[in-house]
Write a structure and sequence with these properties.
Number of helices of chain B: 11
Number of strands of chain B: 16
Order of helices and strands of chain A: EEEHHEHEHEEHEHEHEHEHE
Distance between the termini of chain B: 15 Å
Strand content of chain A: 15-25%
Shape of chain B: globular
Strand order of the largest sheet of chain A: 1-2-3-4-5-6-7-8-9-10-11-12
Strand order of the largest sheet of chain B: 5-10-6-7-8-9
CATH class of the largest domain in chain A: Alpha Beta
Oligomer: heterodimer
CATH architecture of the largest domain in chain A: Alpha-Beta Horseshoe
Largest interface: A-B, 32 and 45 residues
Distance between the termini of chain A: 8 Å
Number of helices of chain A: 9
CATH topology of the largest domain in chain B: D-amino Acid Aminotransferase, Chain A, domain 1
Largest sheet of chain B: 6 strands, antiparallel
């Protein structure tokens, strides 16, 4: 299972591709572009992306960097509240333009929401996306509310203090323990939404349920209301750990979707601490039996919990699989 | 107006087409089993009729006869693709001769059928006509050769397709980066030299396995295109199958998949065309349909063609992935007049909107 679509919305805004002028571009079989007008610029999330084969191993492709520069030099940048960085050349070879993004902070004064790595499987599979150390991005943008990062190659994150961050997400096919540790040691007083895609060990994931304990204690996440431990091959073990986790009592949404959750994990949830205070329990993409799905609904729906049990998977002869394993 | 149908009797392609002919109040067509064509048994084309040649597929014995092989292939076995193509060529020419002898005319010109069944020749014809297609490489004799060429031209990812296959048979989506390689394919590698088509798309990440697959396919003849990322919708990669009948795109289906191959038998699903049109915008969608009409014009001897068309990831561009001569099996899909593909084809014939070419090649 794979990521097959670029983002159409981000931070509640429609995503629009930034194109620096229509002239001279390869218009192979296309129609005229339809984009927002002058007055709509602040009402969109701009995407800067250039899918291009380049062999630079120490920077994004020159074509991408030129496009990014054109965006930063134009009128959109100064009012942009949301920015999506898509393909930066060939992301399996070119590292993410983290230096350039950090250096651009003064030209993105209104930026509050940033997504790095919006690429489909066909553009670059998640675990091949070369990222690097994303920690400086938070230092460069002290007013940032949302940071979402997709990719696994060379991913680094170190403990950070950030007064304003509301949402932090790492989308990977395999999350290293070091990332979890760094998040747990960070000081994020306003963080409402934490989302970690744990993945599998085939793709660099080495998080086990015990590694999640510092996060599950909630000790350093005073404002957390959404916790997503998603896309986990070890979903059953995660569910068992969550069943006794102090942080859960404060949540409005618990998200264990996209993973390999079976009746074992669901039973752990149902026999653990009460979940009836939740507004939403998201378990979509799962391997639960019909009977277990009914049990969950029977126990939680009357209490007002919205339970997402969609996208039920059949366990094939080759075993259960997580949604993003690549 | 009377028709002759060459097909596998009992196959739903034939059943559905005969139903459309009856529904139009036309006389019952003559039918010629593919088995008779392929085995050299006598065949009778209806005098003065219009001759529809439908797919020989889904019949192991017909497949064996076309390949000229002593035994039938095992289910899904990838074997004898070039031999099959030669057999197909001989068979359609046999039908053509039999038709000529009785003043009948074909609804698909053999040259067009055979071009559509040779992906390399098809690509050349489309490109020459200015139809947008992905760039292609010369057929590589080996995996090593393919990798070297990819490095030379700067393409990290390619689609490798047997020149004479269909239905994603033997298709490999190959992605590379420094020191890494990944093949996404429905091919099942049982052991080097022994490949099967399966219903499951899977990944290979060991280079020796990938080399085994490509090296086993190469002798069948390969067509290689640059793998350019496709648009996605509803969590799936999508493409369009557009059936063009008598020059007009009439039936469109969105095929969505979690894999780079969108074929419906590999876990693909029909998608929401209205949603796709919104995502692409009417200008881009209209341009795509116009391209499909241009594709059909490249095969003027055919009443219908099935065009597989891909949008770029940003929906702004499109390219033709493939053209199918038996691409009108889209059960239940109706055009604006409520007709399925077969009904629309019969309609076009009754309205005289298609002129079969004569044996000399000129329109009748």
């Amino acid at each position: 299972m794979t990521i097959n679509e670029r983002l159409t919305t981000f931070a509640g805004l429609p995503v629009v591709d930034f194109e620096p002028g229509e002239g001279g571009e390869d218009r192979e079989g296309g129609g005229p572009a339809e984009g927002p007008g002058q007055g709509d610029r602040a009402a969109v999330a701009w995407r800067v992306a250039e899918n291009d084969f380049d062999e630079s191993e120490d920077q994004a492709s020159p074509k991408f960097l030129a496009k990014l520069e054109a965006f930063l030099a134009g009128p959109e940048a100064s009012t942009a509240t949301a920015l999506v960085i898509g393909a930066w050349g060939y992301a399996a070879m070119n590292p993410a333009p983290l230096n350039e993004i950090c250096a651009a902070a003064s030209r993105l004064p209104a930026l509050r929401h940033l997504f790095i790595g919006d690429m489909t499987y066909e553009e670059c599979e998640v675990s091949w996306i070369k990222l690097g150390d994303v920690t400086p991005v938070l230092a460069a943008f002290p007013s940032l509310h949302t940071l979402r990062v997709r990719g696994g190659e060379d991913l680094e994150f170190h403990p950070v203090v950030h007064a304003e961050l509301r949402e932090l997400a790492f989308e990977t096919g395999g999350l290293p323990t070091a990332i979890v540790e760094a998040v747990a040691e960070s000081d994020l007083p306003r963080l409402r939404h934490l989302e970690l895609w744990l993945g599998t060990d085939n793709y660099g994931g080495d998080v086990d349920a015990d590694d999640l304990a510092p996060i599950l204690s909630g000790a350093r996440l005073p404002a957390l209301t959404y916790l997503g431990l998603r896309d986990a091959e070890i979903a059953d073990e995660v569910a068992a750990a969550v069943a006794g986790a102090p942080v859960v009592a404060r949540l409005t949404t618990l998200d264990l979707s996209l993973g390999a959750l079976s009746d074992v994990g669901a039973t752990a949830l149902l026999t653990g601490q009460p979940l009836t205070h939740l507004r939403r329990l998201d378990l979509h993409h799962h391997f639960l039996s019909e009977a277990m799905m009914a049990r969950l609904r029977d126990e939680l729906t009357p209490a007002g919990v919205e339970v997402d049990l969609s996208d039920r998977q059949e366990e094939e002869e080759w075993g259960r699989f997580i949604s993003v394993a690549e | 107006m009377r028709l002759t149908v060459v097909g596998n009797p009992g196959n739903r392609r034939v059943t559905l087409f005969l139903a459309a002919v009856r529904a139009a109040g036309l006389p019952e067509p003559w039918t010629i089993p593919w088995h008779d064509v392929a085995s050299g048994a006598p065949i009778r084309v209806g005098p003065g009729s219009l001759v529809r040649i439908d797919s020989p597929g889904e019949d192991a014995e017909v497949d064996r006869l076309l390949r000229g092989a002593p035994t039938a292939a095992e289910p899904g076995e990838i074997v004898g693709l070039a031999a099959w193509y030669r057999g197909l060529a001989a068979a359609v020419r046999r039908v053509e001769s039999a038709a000529h002898a009785v003043g009948a005319r074909l609804l698909s010109r053999p040259d067009d059928i055979l071009t559509m069944f040779d992906k390399r020749a098809c690509h050349v014809r489309l490109a020459a006509a200015g139809v947008p297609v992905p760039p292609a490489l010369p057929p590589p004799p080996t995996y090593a050769d393919l990798r070297a060429t990819m490095r030379d031209v700067g393409w990290p990812s390619v689609f490798v397709k047997p020149a004479h296959g269909s239905s994603a048979s033997g298709v490999v989506a190959l992605a590379t980066a420094a020191g890494r390689v990944r093949a996404t394919t429905s091919v099942e590698l049982v052991r080097p030299g022994r490949l099967f088509n399966s219903l499951r798309v899977r990944e290979y990440r060991r280079e020796d396995d990938i080399a085994s697959i490509v090296d086993a396919l190469a002798p069948h003849g390969l067509h290689v295109e640059r793998w350019l990322p496709k648009a996605g919708l509803g969590g799936r990669v999508v493409d369009l199958r557009v059936v063009v009948i008598a020059g007009r795109p009439t039936h469109v289906v969105v095929r969505g998949s979690h894999a780079p191959m969108t074929n419906l038998h590999l876990g693909g699903e029909r998608g929401d065309l209205a949603a796709l049109r919104r995502a692409a915008g009417e200008a881009s969608y209209g341009a795509a349909l116009a391209t499909c009409a241009r594709v059909a014009a490249c095969f003027p001897g055919c009443l219908h063609v099935g065009v597989d068309l891909m949008f770029s990831a940003d929906w702004r561009r499109h390219r033709v992935a493939e053209v199918n001569t038996f691409g009108d099996l889209l059960p239940g899909l109706r055009d604006d007049n409520g007709r399925d593909t077969y009904g629309a084809e019969v309609d076009a014939l009754l309205a005289d909107r298609f002129q079969p070419t004569t044996l000399a090649g000129a329109p009748a």
